[in-house]
Amino acid sequence: MGNAADTPLLLEAAEVPPVLEQNAGGSSPFLLTCDHYGRLIPQALGDLGVAASELERHIAWDIGIAGVAEGLASRLDAHLIAQRYSRLVIDCNRPPCVASSIPVLSEATAVPGNEGLTRPAAEARRKAIFDPYHRRIADVIDARLREHRPTVLVSLHSFTPVYAGVARPWHVGTLYHRDTRLPPLLLKLFRAEADLVVGDNEPYAVSDATDYTIPVHGEARGLMNSGIEIRQDLIADAGGQQQWAARLARIFHEIEATLITPRASHL
């Protein structure tokens, strides 16, 4: 990391802060995160050289997941921590050291504003957006553990119906790596829903190389955890978002009753 004195400020005081929270005092054992909630771009970066129509696509954010996350947090009385800036500025679910952290090419779209970044410019993005988001998640987990509160990390995402010309059949996927507690139960409950095609580590799998939130805040700290991916055409409008929030809330309430509450003293 560069010297803080050499790192220029990116966000002006009047700009929207990167971290959004809902139900900070919520009673649920579930802690919800949303790495790609928003698609804001700091004023200093303009439009990153990307057309406005491209900034509405998945390359800029996880379409539909904001409404699902807010609805689920409300239904569960769960604490939601979300990140408002576009993944094109800096991807908050990528280790800062990897090339995809600040992509120069996202799918087939060039991002001219990300080309040839100096180290201080890259550090400014990390310092302004990535660090506050992940510091807040870490601080909240620290506080919950001090209070001996059961804490289950759920990272919420959405995915495109088609990728590289190939249709994706799954409606929802459970993403995981080392946790063998929560994902099998999620898979069982999702598959009990007759109308769902369920992905087991599909369309993505969690890994240390390509993910940050689950490996760092979930696995490294021994928390029960899982990522959830919902196909974007199912949550493109408010109605779909609330239907999925209600469905997930029903499933998570069942998980809380059958798995988490009886073992709360061990989590």
General description of the model:
With 267 residues, the protein is an alpha/beta fold. The chain has a single domain, classed as Aminopeptidase, CATH 3.40.630. It is 30% helix and 17% strand. The strands form 3 sheets. A 7-stranded mixed β-sheet has the order 1-3-2-6-11-9-10, sandwiched between helices. The protein has a two-stranded antiparallel sheet with strand order 4-5. A hairpin with a 2-residue loop joins strand 7 and strand 8. The longest helix has 28 residues. The radius of gyration is 18 Å and the shape is globular.
Descriptive keywords:
alpha/beta, 7-stranded mixed β-sheet, 267 residues, Aminopeptidase, two-stranded antiparallel ribbon
Short description:
This protein is α/β, with parallel strands linked by helices and 267 residues long. The protein has five helices and eleven strands.
Q: Average pLDDT across residues?
A: 93
**Assembly classification:** single chain
Largest sheet at a glance? 7 strands, mixed
Report, as a whole number of angstroms, the end-to-end distance: 34 Å
Number of domains: 1
Uncertain parts: 1-6, 262-266
Tally the beta strands: 11
Topology:
Elements: E1 19-22, E2 30-34, H1 65-76, E3 79-83, E4 105-106, E5 109-110, H2 119-146, E6 152-159, E7 162-163, E8 166-167, E9 172-175, H3 182-191, E10 198-200, H4 213-219, E11 224-231, H5 238-260
Parallel strand pairs: 2-3, 2-6, 6-11, 9-10
Antiparallel strand pairs: 1-3, 4-5, 7-8, 9-11
Helix pairs in contact: 1-5
